[in-house]
Amino acid sequence: MIGVMVPAYAVALLIAGILVALSNTAADFLVLPSVVMMLFVVLVVPVYIACAIGMLGLVQLLLGMKENQILNIVLIIGFIAVISVFDGLVTEGVVVMSAPVVGAMFIVGMLLLGVIGFMTRILNREKIVTTLPEG
């Protein structure tokens, strides 16, 4: 999981940096992200990346690595839909990014990680070993 999470988080940080740089090229003054947004990127983003990777990995091991392409697409589309809805709520001012919102998102993400971790107990060790590629 860490082998996938580190590069994914690095890409997320790179994209955030590019967005800040693009904002600065379009503005006449220095544009920096707020402390709340930096907390969001540092605390919440890696937790939800880990959740996504954990859910996809769990599904792959449960279904035997071959039957899950459609389910992976559904999960990815689901993540994109949730992100889009939240982005719309922030854009419309329904949700204001604040420290309590970031804290709540972090707590929900950690709870979700715990649920995913608990769900891994239903995996059979024999099935995990037999689904690993030889080589």
Question: How would you sum up this structure, described in words?
Answer:
- By secondary structure, the protein is mostly helical.
- It has helices spanning 2-26, 35-63, 69-91, 99-119, 125-131.
- Helix 1 runs antiparallel to helix 2 and helix 2 (35-63) runs parallel beside helix 4.
- The mean pLDDT is 83.
Put the structure in a nutshell.
This protein is mainly alpha-helical and 135 residues long. The chain has five helices and no strands.
Query: What is the average of the pLDDT values?
Result: 83
Radius of gyration: 18 Å
Global morphology: elongated
How many distinct beta strands? 0
Show unreliable segments. Answer: none
How many angstroms separate the termini? 20 Å
Count of DSSP H/I helices: 5
The structure class reads: mainly alpha
Largest sheet: none
Order of helices and strands: HHHHH
- Sheet-strand content, in percent, reads under 5%
**Could you estimate the helical fraction of the residues in percent?**
over 70%
Main features:
single chain, 135 residues, mainly alpha, 5 helices, elongated
Helices and strands in order:
Blueprint: H1 2-26, H2 35-63, H3 69-91, H4 99-119, H5 125-131
